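Reading a protein record of the kind used here takes only a little practice. An example makes this concrete, so a full record is given next.
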Amino acid sequence: MEDRLQMDNGMVPHKIVSVHLQESTLKELGQVDPSEKEKSVSSAQMHDSADTSETAVKSELEIAANPGDPQSEEEKCKLEQASKHEEESSSLSDREIGPGEHHHLHLSSCHECLQLENSTIESVRFASAENIPELPDDCSSKPEDKNVEYIASKIKRVNLAGKPPNILIYVGSEGSKMQFEQVKSVLEECVDGDSYTIYHLREEQVLRDPWVDNAVLLVIATEETISEESHKQFIKFLSNGGKILGFSSLFTFDDIQIKRKDKLKTVRELVVSKPDNTEVKLDFLISGCIFEEAMKENISKVKPLSHLNNADRDLVIIHLPYGDNGGEAVLSQVHLELDINSMDIQTEEDFNLLKMSNTKRYEILKEILISLGLSCELREIPMLTPIHLLSSDEEIHVAFLKWLEQNVDAEGLIASSKVSLKFVSSDETKMEVTPSLMPVITQMGSFSSEHFSLKTYQQNLQTKKLGKILLFTEVTTTTMNLLDGLMFKLPEEMGLIAIAVRQTQGKGRGGNVWLSPVGCALSTLHITVPLYSNLGQRIPFVQHLVSLAVVEAVRSIPGYEGIELRVKWPNDIYYSDLMKLGGVLVNSTLMETTFHILIGFGFNVDNSNPTICINDLIRKYNKEEGTQLKPLTADCLIARTVTVLERLIDVFQEKGPNGVLHHYYKYWIHSGKRVRLRSEEGPVAWIVGIDDCGFLQVHEEGKGVESVHPDGNSFDMLRNLLVPKR
């Protein structure tokens, strides 16, 4: 029914709410003349409260809209339990609604409603990111009105401060849509997406529209001079208990002045005070300005949150309270809102410093938002999705389906202790997807995905058998579990791979959790290795070959050879020797004389935050070298990785370690590195290379060369430390 109704702004209702009608009203409705029902009555406009102490909001419900009229609308009205005298109809009721009370829906033709329309009716409005006036009417700005309920489809639950949970972003009169989207995207990664709606507060709306009472947070993200009129509105917002977060803006108050320290924006080291009274040092882009206090006696009101790590300890982030209603502001001359890809970074050193501080940037921003009363809890775990059976080769696909007929039970099930798979021809059955039972749709014709192109995968997969049969899903627990029930039964020539867009329980080495946002390449590949073979006698080399395959998948593309992607012993993919952007997990099972190996690998392709991704490195390379290399995609790189891996395995089986180690050393980050063994005070050693079994070789003074097993040790890159795994 919702899709047949349309609001006057062109939007359609998200949900129609059922209401209770008085019996007397129902009787009256039956007597209403049909022509009367079809009268279109418009809602009263929102009024500025400057002319009167109380705001009157009118709204009426059209009960029989003309289907051919695009302007037809449905509105609901909520009645307060108030006196029905006509003399009280000029003001809105401030009474709170109890949880068990029912408020009856009345109509524009109802005699009772006509008497009470001014005193009891609230508009149903659909919030629009493009139109701040479409925010819900706020009956009162009084802090005590905490339980007011807004009947709206896109506006979330009112927060404890009594304000609708809207976040407004002001980027000035010259601010572009792109600037707004940049700030919005950062906030969306920090706040609870189910609790807040983010809007663009445009210059013309600052003075005209009643946003002051309709937002829980105002973000000022412009370096323009704030006009006197706009400044007054922002102060009014604070006076009403509002919260302001300033990003490198000239907005300030209460004798706090902004002084330009540097002519240009620069990357500087900061000292940030944490809520637990600890301090952390990190590097951020600074606007070039600092905060100073004009009157030192007001220093008690200012809470310093961050200062430059210099002799003057210049303030760059401060907290300021305002008024008696809980208004407060956090003002920052640090560009916490900017992603590195939107900055004009001049040097490789600045790029590295900012990327290494990126995770802490999010932590600090979340702490600031929490201090301003916002919720930054983790979002809900996405729902699991069905699996699609795909193939890069039609002949192999048909052969696999024939194999399935002989190996599934009567219900189309292949059972497993981890995840049982139920094979169905299509998704019409709408079977529930659970962590222990997942449907697999076998018809390829119904497959489509925004994040994965089977055609791109097919074009880049050049293997004899690996990766030919795909189990693809948008969201799963972990791809490591999907192949468990198939790998011991499937014929060897049917190379099996599981690919996901997101994982809710991604696994890393040693029980670590691997975060799996959209933009990662996530897959688990099944391979078999004969026990009595070069690789079968050196299984630890498998993780080295996979790490190398990921790096070569990128750096073997013509033009991409200079992308600074490297391998770190024993199983990581790194940007230079600075930051991890991928990893490998290998589980092997020996069945008679054959190793069945599940290789899980994941690496960041297009997710810049919270750390770094391959496309970041490509953009960096383009800027430095003046090239125009295109960004890469997960489907392309997964296929290329599998292709390179099959070739590396073939070479290893033929020539042993010496066939691949020269490639591995070309890209690894450890040559000649000085480390300490076991602890920060442990003996000094130098990394020599990898021995014949794939273990790391180090040379300790006075003791010669010894091997370090990857399953028993971890390489701490930040401290150049080899320590036992716990």
The chain has four domains: 1-128, 166-260+289-342+361-371, 387-667, 674-724.
